[in-house]
Design brief:
The chain is α/β, with parallel strands linked by helices and 388 residues long. The chain has 2 domains: 3-164 and 280-385, Zn peptidases (Aminopeptidase); 166-273, Alpha-Beta Plaits. The chain contains 11 helices and 14 strands. The strands form 4 sheets. A 6-stranded mixed beta sheet has the order 1-2-4-3-5-13. It binds zinc ion.
Amino acid sequence: MDVGKQELNRLVDQLAPEIGRIATLIGRNPELGHQERYAAELLTGFLAEQGFKVEKGIGGLATAFQAQHSAEAAAPKVGLLAEYDALPGVGHGCGHNLIAAASIGAAVALSRLKDLPGTVMVLGTPAEETSGAKVTLAEQGFFTELDAALMFHPGSQNVTEITTLALDAVEFIFHGKAAHAASAAQYGINALDAVINFFVGINALKKQLPDDARINGIITEGGITPNIVPERAVARLYIRSARRRELDDLRERVISCAQGAAAMLGGQVTWRKFELSYDEMCSNRPLADAFTKNLRLMGINKVIALQAAMGSVDMGNVSRVVPAIHPYLTLGDGMTIPHTREFAEAALSEDGNRLAVIAAKALAFTALDVLSDRKLLQKMKREFAGIY
Ligand SMILES: [Zn+2]
């Protein structure tokens, strides 16, 4: 371990009680997306105390923030991303309290280095579980001036490079015509039948799709009472694919199914996106490799290099703007399933606090690599330019 990393290692160890305190306080006070007022206050308060220049409510999002260490903003610039939203009913069942604690721990440790060769920025990104703030912040250019964006996520194993699916959330509204269902059905157009035809069409379409495409849907409205032909029926779909450009094509095919299903009965269909669209995660390989090397430096050798995840994360949108990683590190014995009460308990335990400290070190070491190793920076930029 070189001198800089030895110093960082000591600094994170000194910060361990603070990292544990932040993880525990956020863990004990779970807040849903865009309502994370307690967490945002706690984190920005601590960062301001540590000399960071804090800006709250960025991008028009009340619980988003950014905090920059050096006022003169020397290049290069590294961003550490903090999530802090919880899930309904299961609290911090995704362990975002640990993500916040680790990123803040890493940023403060870096800011205390004697010679920090660049700028460290913390970005507070709310509502990962619903309408991810990273999508809005990426659209508004909050990541463009960064040279790298880093975060970690607690999980069941150590994986440094992940791919996730691009996601569109589309609502389809079928418009028919009401009539007495028993005595005058010939005058009606049944919107519920249209939506059922739509799902039959989708099931047929699925047989023609590659393995990494996903279409999952529910019917949210299907009429009011059995003796009126339903004049309105609504379905909500999550459509996913490995790449944004493939998803754009798949979404059009799903729309064709909806139009066919409506036309079949003489009805009509309209559609709209009901949540923000996520892009696929493109982990920057040189950056992911640097993170793996740093885990090994810390004696963590059981690391999977690449894994395809079938979910979607808003970090995907960040990874299209700037070299980014979203590695997973093992929480506890790795046997707990995410989005459960058990996972929330593990994220609020001594194991959780220990993991946040380990993650803070790995993030801080990797951030230092980005700031001090010109060759790595070049490799990251070359790889990034080749992605799209
Ligand atoms: Zn999560």
